[in-house]
Amino acid sequence: MRFIKLILTLAILTAVPAFARASQMSYPEGQLDQLVSRIALYPDPLVAQILAGATYPDQIRDAERWSDEHHYLHGQALADAIQGDQLPWDPSVQALLPFPSVLEMMASDMNWTTDLGNAFLSQQQDVMDAVQRERRKARDYGYLRSNGQIVVGGGPYITIMPVNPGFVVVPYYDPRIVFFPPRPGFVVGGGIRFGFGVTIGGFFRPWGWGPDYDRFDWGRHDIFINNARWGRTWGNRGEYVHPYEGVRRFGPAERAPERHEVHERSERERGDAREGRPEHEEHRGGGDHGHDRGDDHGHR
Predict the structure, then answer these.
(1) What is the pTM of this model?
(2) Are 206 and 87 in contact (CB under 8 A)?
(3) 121: pLDDT strictly greater than 70
(4) Which residue in 172, 171, 167, 209 sits closest to 294, CA to CA?
(5) Cα dihedral angle (20, 21, 24, 28), rounded to 10 degrees?
(6) pLDDT (tens digit, 9 = 90+) per residue, 209-218?
(7) How far apart are CA 45 and CA 226, in angstroms?
(8) C-alpha distances out from residue 56 to 40, 62, 106, 140, 234, Å
(9) What would the pLDDT profile of 189-215 be if each residue is shown by its tens digit?
(10) Gyration radius of the chain's alpha carbons
């Protein structure tokens, strides 16, 4: 009997570290900086939505595919289609559907998206600190500054907000440039480009978009989605349900048939979109995100 107890004790002691490793993700500071570098200079509301959506990495590819198939929809028509199709993904993932280039970025590198989501689930405070570190570098090197599209708050925490809360612009920048001292002769003003954005009207309010509905409390290391503190963590990720008003959650078996025509793009159109060339009307502004949809300008 004593031998059996000893065996059981050893088995438990051996299993605990393995379980802990499986249950707790841990990313060092340098890796966190690298993970957030792609999105650290996005406006705060968009960063908040990306971090929340990344915690559901298994849903990102399907959402990106749906977005690609419905590239011709924008504004109220897009919101109606999202509701009408009874999409089975979490509202935090649905909230990214107006931003096809963001979903494309996430779907094209699922290792990065999964790591970003896991880091946010297990180390929310550390992820927010990493965003601040990257923003501080870009600001100190002269790349990050207020302009006609964003307002950069100076501190003690660096905020990035749209000039127009109803129009969210997706910046284009190379992390290998903007977080390092500028090379001699390099034009700092061209390090971050803004030009294409998405009009977020009241039709996207059910998914949390709107003034002050998606925001950070940087000092307290809190994030608010749909005006409610985001409480999903690594420990409660299986049962946590974030509150959304006006978005009903559907399982795959509950999906209704699509109520609108799906337009398939030609290979040429897909190639143009991948290269940043809009195949329809263009909202001119000099950015590379020409395939983000708004409700009053270019489609994908």
Answers:
(1) 0.79
(2) no
(3) yes
(4) 167
(5) 140
(6) 988 888 999 9
(7) 10
(8) 19, 11, 11, 34, 12
(9) 789 998 778 998 888 998 989 888 889
(10) 21
